[in-house]
Structure formats: C-alpha cells, structure tokens
Backbone:
C-alpha cells in the first residue's frame, strides 16, 4: 500500500501522453513556422515571383514538421530530401514498375513486394528503413501529418 502511494507521488507525467505529444508538436511547429513565415514576409518584395514565395512557404511548412517530429527515420529522410531539393531546386520523380504475365503465386509475391514498395515510397527516407519498421514509421508520419493539418487550420482560423 505504501509503495503504491510513493509511486503515485513520483508520477510527474500526464495520464494522457498523446495530449502532451500533440501540444509539444504544436508548440515546436508554430514557433518555427511563424518565425520562418515572418522572415519570408520581410524578405518578399513586390517584384518577387509568386511561385518563389509558394516554394519558400512549402519548404518552411515541411521543415517545421521535420523539426517538430525529430527522432523518426521518416523525419530524417524528409529533412535530407528537403535540403537536397531546396539547394538544387529540382523535384524528384519516380519510375513505374510493370508486372508481366506470370504464374499466380509469383504474381502474388510480386504484388506483395510492389505493395511494400508503395508503402515505403509514402515515407520520406523510407528506402533506408527496414521492413519491420515500415508500419511504425508510417503510423508516426501520418499522425504528424494530422497534427500539422490541425495546427495549420487553427493558424488560418486565427488569421481570418
């Protein structure tokens, strides 16, 4: 009984860890994004191309997500991709793989491999993730995308 009371007294974390993770993500996301958008606004002249502004805003929105969700393989992969594209200003494209006419069992194996490749392609830096981690990384990536959308919706609601 006494040990249970000591454990209760030592507990300093919330009973709702998802709320804490979401609030930390939102705080980090907004602190980076707002300052980056303010810099873009200050550096924007009337003669600057609209496409350049859009590219800069898109880069900063995605970089805010990377910096707010550090520690995941997809986060590191997205950061490398963003930095490469930002420096080179080149979009990467992926080729299509066609399946030929084969036996059913071989075709199913190839379809499974194709499905796994498609899953991996959804995750930034997914090529460097082992197959066992793909689902966990994809889950964390989707959750962070959802939090990003929620933060951006709140930001838009506040500015309108």
Residues:
């Amino acid at each position: 009984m006494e040990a249970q009371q000591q454990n209760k007294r030592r507990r300093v974390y919330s009973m709702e860890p998802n709320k804490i993770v979401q609030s930390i993500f939102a705080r980090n996301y907004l602190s980076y994004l707002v300052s980056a958008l303010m810099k873009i606004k200050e550096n924007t002249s009337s003669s600057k191309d609209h496409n350049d502004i859009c590219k800069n805003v898109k880069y900063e929105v995605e970089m805010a997500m990377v910096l707010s969700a550090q520690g995941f393989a997809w986060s590191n992969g997205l950061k490398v991709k963003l930095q490469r594209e930002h420096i080179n200003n080149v979009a990467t494209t992926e080729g299509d793989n066609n399946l030929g006419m084969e036996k059913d069992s071989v075709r199913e194996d190839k379809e499974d491999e194709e499905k796994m490749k498609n899953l991996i392609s959804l995750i930034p830096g997914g090529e460097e993730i082992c197959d066992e981690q793909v689902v966990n990384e994809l889950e964390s990536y989707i959750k962070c995308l959802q939090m990003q959308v929620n933060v951006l919706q709140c930001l838009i609601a506040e500015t309108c």
